[in-house]
Amino acid sequence: MSIFSKLFGGVRPTKHQGASADEIPKVIGLLQQSAKNGNFVVFMFAPADSTDGNAVNLQYSIDGGVVGFDWVLISPRNIADKAKVVEFASRLGHRLEEQEMNGVHFLRITGSGISELGAKIIQDFYKIDRNTKLEIMTQGFEWKP
User: Fold this and answer.
1) Which of 44, 69, 106, 142 has CA atoms 20 to 30 A from the CA of 37?
2) Would residue 13 count as lying in a domain?
3) pLDDT, tens digit, 9 for 90 and up, residues 1-59
4) How far is C-alpha 11 from the geometric centre of its chain's CA atoms?
5) What is the CATH number of the domain that holds 41?
6) Which pairs with CB-CB distance under 8 Å and at least 24 residues apart come from 71-76?
């Protein structure tokens, strides 16, 4: 069972290529326009220092009508980097709150600055160039770069 099946009850997302950290605000805008609880986008990438190839999953989703940033604790890399990401976000003035849905734990934050937080995690924390195209998966909207 995939991360998406566990979180969203078996709904199969659409895989896309080609969204960069710089495009996060545009992608979030499309997600917000979709206006349906459970819709999401996940940015997936393996950091340069990865020795095992485990991907990071950086997610934005709609819950309770509100778009939020989610750090889902299923991927081995997300679990391993949890404390460091919480500390990194805290230094930027963001407080991630642990939540649970369908037996899956994740960290979530809503409000202003969530697109910048994701971009900074990609660029500054994982040292990936802001223009690098990352694989994404969407549910409930289409991304057309």
Assistant:
1) 44
2) no
3) 234 444 555 555 556 568 999 999 999 999 999 989 999 999 999 988 877 878 999 99
4) 17
5) 3.30.1360
6) 71/96, 71/106, 71/107, 71/108, 72/3, 72/7, 72/104, 72/106, 73/104, 73/105, 73/106, 73/107, 74/3, 74/6, 74/104, 75/3, 76/52
